[in-house]
Amino acid sequence: MENIIDVQNLKKEFKSYSSRQGLKGAFRDLFTRNYTIKTAVDDISFSIKRGEMVGYIGENGAGKSTSIKMLTGILTPTDGKIVVNGMNPHKEREKFVKTIGVVFGQRSQLWWDIAVQESFRLLKKIYNVPDQQYEEHMKDVIETLDIGPLLDKPVRKLSLGQRMRCELAAALIHNPPLLFLDEPTIGLDVLVKLKIREFLKRINEKYGTTILLTTHDLSDIEALCERVVMLDEGKIIYDGPLKELRENWAEGKQIQFQFSEKATLEELQNLTKDHLVVWEQGESDLIWIASVDSDETVISGVIGKVTAVKKIADLKILEISTEEIIRNIYVEGAVRHG
Amino acid sequence: MGKYIEMIRIRFLMMLAYRTNYYSGILIYSINIGAYYFLWSAIYGGKENIQGLSITQMTTYIAVAWMARAFYFNNIDREIAMEIKEGKVAIEMVRPYPYLNMKMMQGLGEGIFRLLFFSVPGMVIVALVFPVELSANAGTWIYFFISIGFSFIINTQINLLAGIATFFLFNNDGLIRAKRVVIDLFSGLILPLSFYPMWAQNIMSYLPFQGISYIPSMIFTEGFKGSQVFEALINQAVWSAILIIPVYVLWILAKRQLVVQGG
Ligand SMILES: Nc1ncnc2c1ncn2[C@@H]1O[C@H](COP(=O)(O)OP(=O)(O)OP(=O)(O)O)[C@@H](O)[C@H]1O
Ligand SMILES: [Mg+2]
């Protein structure tokens, strides 16, 4: 399958100027100014195929938004090559932007003072969408996102979740084959998030829309993306299936015991001394958590030994959440490969 | 083309949403015109004419200059500056249209709104209260409308330049305010240019500002006659064309310099 996004050795440096101190400094600033260079995106390469949904993740300030701005032709790269939809985004800007849809969760692209449908109408004219195509496509979009009742309201009167659904619809008026979403679910409640996820899945299936999405909510990624690209300080530290990331990092399991009578650390350690177990007390002295390797014999061994001696009220086997995995990676700043 | 008309329509709708702001505007303009009328009456003090303008022509000049200002005046310099500072240009850059043309159209939507809801009723009020003289000559009206079309273009291009300067200066409130004063002063809004000393008139004849207010007002009051009208219109047309160059060059440099804040 063809690549819809192709990025090679992409780099973006920002110059930030600093002022010198005092009057003399201010005077010198008039002629030469001090600046420091911040590399926001540092020599990254990747490609995305048609129809993929890719999660672009990383800590605050990792360079996600900066990359998206370069991919959408807003910023000029300092160095490197970008081909998106077969074009150089910055060179052929007007032609290029007709082939993409963009949502920035942090800023609105609708006109603040006019009704949502007026914005849609203007965008329809701007993108030159034929009436018939607009009718068919937007009817579906409006229904799925459930924004029909909002259309005659001015944008400034909408709640964040209502507005975000309208933003998404606005980005899709010309039914672009490629969609960039920079934190589309920021600040939304669970129901709206679910609705947006379902919607994205649906357009991906129906139209084969390629989606590149940044978010800090990993459940978005889990629900939507098979592939993640992880960025740290401007560099790609992982690019591959989410599943693999989980498998390589979620090595252990946790078994949570709730005893009917008090238990002590020594007692438990003593019971399971044949296995490699780390015991930790839970919320009360009745609840204890054993962290073990994901190995059947170890898990059943520990459970067997403990339950043979002590009465239990409840037992849970916990998997380490993706959230925790990602947190561990951020802390270590690198990805172990399996 | 459709998108430009749609943009003018949308801007018109936005202005309509806030139309109450404009009722007070009509009042302010009328007070301004009234104040200048009494000032000039005192200055004329019985004299037939000064610098070739009679007191009636002078009153008409002031009235029409302010009413034309409602059409050519717009805030797109401030808007561009704000869009840059708040990082909203990002959204503009992912839209398939030339940003500056679209801004100009927004200015036009604003201008047409003010012309209809502000200048026309305002002019009626002023004509009832003060001794202004509206020409009965159809040609004068046609030349006048062509002329304020150019006024709009020249003033908007200067606004674009001031707005784009934000890319380089970042905070250019001062520049925008200074520009406003320069235009009000050098365009002949406050004082017809023929009242300035000769050396100042010489300098101003090499600047685009007279095309903004002095020329259309002189055409309307029939202070320009015969070939003077055509020379004046050609002057405006030439400036409209010349100003495209700095706007274009500055915009290319600005895009290269573009840094989007936030997000
Ligand atoms: N206009 C700018 N001038 C200077 N530095 C900038 C500018 N924009 C971004 N940066 C820097 O580049 C780095 C990457 O920023 P970017 O906005 O891409 O991060 P991000 O991954 O989107 O973070 P977040 O998750 O917080 O949105 C940051 O360190 C930021 O300070
Ligand atoms: Mg960001």
TrEMBL record, chain A:
InterPro entries referenced in this protein's UniProt entry, alphabetically: AAA+_ATPase (IPR003593), ABC_transporter-like_ATP-bd (IPR003439), ABC_transporter_ATP-binding (IPR050763), P-loop_NTPase (IPR027417)
SUPFAM superfamilies: P-loop containing nucleoside triphosphate hydrolases
Gene Ontology MF terms in the entry: ATP binding; ATP hydrolysis activity
Nucleotide-binding in keyword set: yes
A Pfam short name: ABC_tran
Top-level taxon of the source organism: Bacteria
Residues of the ABC transporter domain: 25-258
UniProt protein name: Daunorubicin ABC transporter ATP-binding protein
UniProtKB/TrEMBL annotation, chain B:
Key words, A-Z: Membrane, Transmembrane, Transmembrane helix
Residues passing through the membrane, by range: 21-40, 52-72, 112-130, 142-169, 181-199, 233-254
Superkingdom to which the source organism belongs: Bacteria
Entry keyword Transmembrane: yes
PANTHER family to which the protein is assigned, alphabetical: SLR1174 PROTEIN (PTHR36832:SF1), SLR1174 PROTEIN-RELATED (PTHR36832)
Name of the protein: Daunorubicin ABC transporter permease
Organism: Fictibacillus arsenicus
